[in-house]
Amino acid sequence: PEGIVNIKFRKERQLETMARLDSTYAALKQKLADKSLSADQQSEVKTQMTQREQRLLPVYSQISLQFADLHDRAGRMQAKDTIRHPLVWKNARRFFYWRLRRRLNEESILKKMASVSVRGPTARAQNLRTLQAWTGAENFEHDDRGVACWYEENKKVVHTKVEALRSEGIAGDVASLLRSNKDGGLAGVKQVLSMLPVEEREAVLKQLSAP
Q1: pLDDT tops 90 at residue 118
Q2: What angle do CA 190, 193, 195 make, to 5 degrees?
């Protein structure tokens, strides 16, 4: 907090605030601006202002420190969505254990999903929503233990769903290619079919002809 105050709320800024909030200091500052004052009178006013500053600056500095410190408090961080909720110290070890266990599993799955699904600035958020739907967790955002256990107990399910995403992605790529260049796309499909064994080619043709 001291560093923030020294940069954002230096002495001159504190004096400006003092002139705005403290009527006595404001009156002295206004009086000093009077051009009709003699040199002795100006000196006296400056002395009074200095005394007032010495009296109030410690208070203003302390308030500044408290205000700056609020930016790092849990309540303020939660209000800014930089944390999900304040952490109870006695539960810290348990919290971080399950949080880390969940995130390691989750990041591994998200990485696989990213490699087979549509990429873009919203891809991660979309994949997280897909994961939430897969787990069926009512409190997906905060139930780290429940979500972590689901990931670990349903690895085969996750693998199957990721492979389904891969198939959907390939199908989308082929459809996009055919829309953008029909002749080239069909030529490519024909070439692939010619390379397949007879049984597989017949199965593909049968699938393509199905409604």
Answers
A1: no
A2: 115
Q: What's the Cα-to-Cα distance from 113 to each of 19, 88, 129, 162, 200, rounded to whole Å? A: 59, 34, 12, 6, 28
Q: Give the side-chain half-sphere CA count within 13 A for 204.
A: 12
DSSP for residue 117: S
* 8 Å CB contact between 28 and 18: no
pLDDT of residue 133: 95
d(CA 35, CA 151): 78
What does the alpha-carbon distance between residue 134 and residue 112 come to, in Å, rounded to a whole number? 15
What tens digit of pLDDT does each residue of 135-168 get?
Answer: 999 999 999 999 999 999 999 999 999 999 888 8
pLDDT at 120 over 80: no
Dihedral sign computed on CA atoms, order 64, 66, 70, 72 = positive
- Residue 64, Cβ neighbours under 10 Å: how many? 21
